[in-house]
Every structure is written in C-alpha cells, then in structure tokens.
Amino acid sequence: MQETKESDIKILRKIVSFVTYNVVELHKDKWDELGDCILSLASSKEPVKAFHVFIDLPPVYKSFIGKGDSRVTNGVDGDLDFLCCEFSKEASGDEKRTVLVRGLEDFESFFSGDMNLYHYTKDQFHFVLASMNEIEGVVGTETKEIVRKIKMLVTEPYDDLKNRREEFERGWYDILKDLSSLEVLKILASSELEDRSKEIAIRRLNVLLSDHTSKKVQIDISEMRQLQPLLISCLKEEGLSFNSMFKVLGEVVNHVAYEMLIYQEETWYELRDYIASSKTEFHRAVYIFQCLTIALIDDDFVIPVMENLFLEIITRLDPPRELLVDNSSWVLAFMGGFCLAIHLIETSSKAESVKEIAHKMIDSIRELMEREMEVGLVKRGFRDVESIVKKQLEWYSTSQYKFIKGLLWRLYAIKGMKWESKIVLWRINVIVERGVKEEEKELPENEFDWLNLNAE
To answer: pTM for the whole thing?
Structure first.
C-alpha cells in the first residue's frame, strides 16, 4: 500500500469504506486490523495516506478511534481551525491561495455528503461552524465565499431540525391541553418519554395546578389526592436529573401541598417522608423543602424534616476551602438553613436548633469574607433567600419579621462585604417592610428577642 499512487488510493479508500460499513454498521462487528493499518500509515513517510483511508470511513466504534487518536487525530479536534488560520495568514502567494481554495472546496464536497449520510450531531455541527468562523476572519474574498457555503450547510440542518422540533412540541402541547392534571401526571409517571416531552408535560401540569391555586379553575379534591402518590413516584424516579424539569416538579408539589395542607388541613406524610428520608439526596430534599411556600405549622411534618436536615445543613455551611465550578452544596445549605429557621422560629422545643443554624449562617458568611471568597457564593445565597422571602411573605408574622430583621442587621455588620451583596440584603429588607402587615412589625430588642428566645 505504501507504493500505491494517490489517484489509486482514492479508489481504494472507497472500497475500504464499503467493506468497513458492511463489517461495522451492518454486522455490528469490529475490524481492528484496519485501525492498525491506519496507524502504521500515520507513522510512515507518507502519513497523508492515513487520512485518505480514514476520511471515508463510516462512524466507527470508540476503541477504533482510540487506536490512532494520538497519531492520526492528534491536534485535529483542537487545532484544525488554528492550523487553517495560520496557513491562511501566510497564504499570500498565488500557489498557497490555490491550495487553500482547493482544500476548502474538497472539504465542502466531503462535508455536504458526510453530514447527511451519517446524521451529524449538534456537537459535530458546532465544531465545523466554530472552525469556519475562525477561518473566515483571516481569508480573502474567494475563500470567504466557500466558507460561507460551508456555514450554510451547517445552519440549514439546524433550521430544519428546529422547525421539526417546534412542530412536534406544538402537537404534543395540543394533546396535553385536552387532558386533566391526573391524566398528564399518569403519562409522566408511567411512560418512557424523552426528556423534552417530559418537560413540556410537567410544565403543562404546573399551569393547570397554578390555575387551581389562583382559583381560575377548580380541580376536584379526589383528583388532588390521586396526584399525591404519583408525584412522590416521580420525585423518586431513578435517573431523574436535578435540572429544570425537577425544579418545575417542585412547583407542582407546592401547588398540591398548598391545597392539602392549607385548605384540607391534611398532613402529606409521603412528602414529609421523602424530604426527611436519609435515602433522598441532600440537594433534592432541600430543594423540594424550600419549594413549599406555605406556613408549615404542623409539627408532625416540619420537625421530622428538621431532624433529618439539621446536621447536614450545619456541616455543609462550613465554607468550601476553594471556589469550585459548582458550589451549590453551600448555597443549598444556606437556603435550607434559612427555611428551617423561618418555619421553626415559633417552635419553642427547637429554639436552640434555630439559634445554632442562624449563628452558623452568619459565621459562614463572615469566614467567606475573611477568605475573600465572596464572589459566586454569598450573593447567590442571598438571592436565593430573597426569592424564598418573596414567596413566603403572605404568612409572615411578628416572629418571622423579627428574625429576618435581626439576621439582616448582623449580616450587614460583617466587614468587607461587597456592595453587590449588600444590595441584595437591602432588597430583602424592602420586601419585608412593604409586605408584612404593620400590626405584625416589631423590631427585635436584643439577641434573645430576634431568635424568639426567653432570656434567662
């Protein structure tokens, strides 16, 4: 094969492609010898022949690519656009310009066929588009026209895919509009829908229950009771990601809890057990707990939740040693601590626990200030508390008002806090001042008063 002319190898690569397709695609087998051959060519004096063989291959298995990725594809994924750009910058002569034009024309021809034959993924299209954007910035008029054609090939499948997706989503939503809340939830709980279809369904369910909460429509109480076990089943579903869909599910849970705990005065034990269970991941338990915007006055509900979450919250409120890409654990602990304290501030048997949580929240913020780790953590934690206060405000009484005022005063007093974080605290104060009834407003007099403790 090393003596094969370039014109002949182009014919040979087509034959290799057909055989590979038969072996790998049709018979779901492997052809490791071909991988070894490509690797050998890549190590020879004419490595371009390796690309000739590789370029027409159908999608192959991961280990096949892995054999030669250090020789054949090394630098291609990360540096293809860089190499083209560098060549483009230097291609001032007619000969270099001709080579560049020919190369882009060959790529256009290859890409237009390959993307349709093998149904490129979104990531593959993105890679090609990003590469063309880089090249477009440094090439001349003639080559820019070819780059534009290649980019059109990328955007047209995007548009077609987008139109098909939007058409499907409209049709799916039209189906859901004619179903009751129970029917929608049964579909969610029993069928293996893809994530986007599930998200549309859960959002439709949220709209239905929101309309019930706002008294725009009436859902029978018997239907609400049937929703309860199905919702718990959805929360426990294996593989359910902690994403936007889970968060909408939290809103749905809140609507049902509002009906059952407030209007029907029934304890939703299954929901309590889900939040209070050691089997439930911390971030899921805290998130669902903070979704409950109602006053949890039932000790049978809130105390078991507190007993499960308390130690975990105290532990996770220890400031992280370094800023990570995802510091959501600390933020959730701060949010969960606030929720526990606000719900238990009038429960005398848990007064010391409330005090410990509140002081831990303040000490944690102070330590973050001292470590200069405020960015990305403190402001986010404050904003989450602000969101919770907005949703809970309607049931706040004197005890909640005193607690929030005392907490805000102590947070304001921490030295070194950035203005962006203080602005959020100021907004929380404004929300409370405007939202709490005048007769409930009473400023805390001392350390014991804001935590609703009896001075001894």
So the answer is: 0.64
